[in-house]
Amino acid sequence: MPVFLAALAALSWGTADFIGGLASRQAPAQSVVVYSQLVGLTLALIGAPLLGGEPTARDFLWGGAAGLLGSFGLVALYAALAGGKISVVAPVSGVISAGVPLLFGLLIGERPAPTAVVGMTVALVAIWLVSAGEDLAASGIGLALVSGAGFAGFAIVIGQTADTSGLWPLVPARVSSILLIVGFSLLTAGAIRPPRKVGRLVIAAGVGDMAANMLFLTASHLGLLSIAAVVSSMFPAPTVLLGRFVLREQVRPAQWVGLVLALVAVTLISI
């Protein structure tokens, strides 16, 4: 079940990232993130009480810290997707967001089954192959690395919340993220204006991102953080496929191999 939930999180994140990237091509990335996160906060406030949980002050603190890290990752990703090639930006971000939590999980004593270790290794190779054969320097590589680091930090920190906290840590995560981005924007670029032209895209991105957060948090509570992080970090696969079929971006042979290996990795991890 944790692997299945993490795979659904990858699908939801990948779709939300694609939609958010499209919106960021027509509106400032900060505006897209803030208003999509307001949508996510609304969903968290509805879902958390329905699913229950007994969060402590510690869980709320971890959630708030995770939100700060995740906000850096999301703004960087949307900005990179707006100016770079989706089929490059998303995979590079995915490699970092998978590899760092994996190492952290091993360092704190998590010991996945041998088949899961093989599967996670295959997953890292798959994520990287999806970005093969491109001019990374010209495709937003710097912002992609920042986004991957932010997502990795989010996964590690939100994973420190108690299994009994339910979805409640996602509420302070969203609040801290929104406050950080709004505060930064006011200091640097003035007020954030509603991205009315892309309102539907922003709502869809917010729903998809929060759904993925809920799925990932549940997966990390039910299973190992390292496995949940690696499986959910395969979000570049749906992003690249959407880029291929919606934007007609070229998908190279190595990228197709990477997409197939992603399916193999999920199978191995779930055994």
Fold and architecture overview:
There is one protein chain. By secondary structure, the chain is mainly alpha-helical. The protein has one domain (2-270). The chain is built from 11 helices and no strands. Helix 1 (2-24) packs across helix 3, helix 1 (2-24) packs across helix 9 (225-232) and helix 2 crosses helix 8 (199-222). It is globular and about 50 Å long.
Which characteristics define this entry?
11 helices
Q: Give the N-terminus to C-terminus distance in angstroms.
A: 11 Å
- What structural class should be given to the helix and strand makeup? mainly alpha
Number of spatially distinct domains? 1
Radius of gyration: 17 Å
Number of distinct beta strands: 0
Q: Which runs of at least 5 residues are low in confidence (pLDDT < 50)?
A: none
Mean pLDDT: 83
SS strand fraction: under 5%
Describe the main β-sheet briefly: none
What kind of oligomer do you see? Answer: single chain
Categorize the overall geometry.
globular
SSE order, as H and E? HHHHHHHHHHH
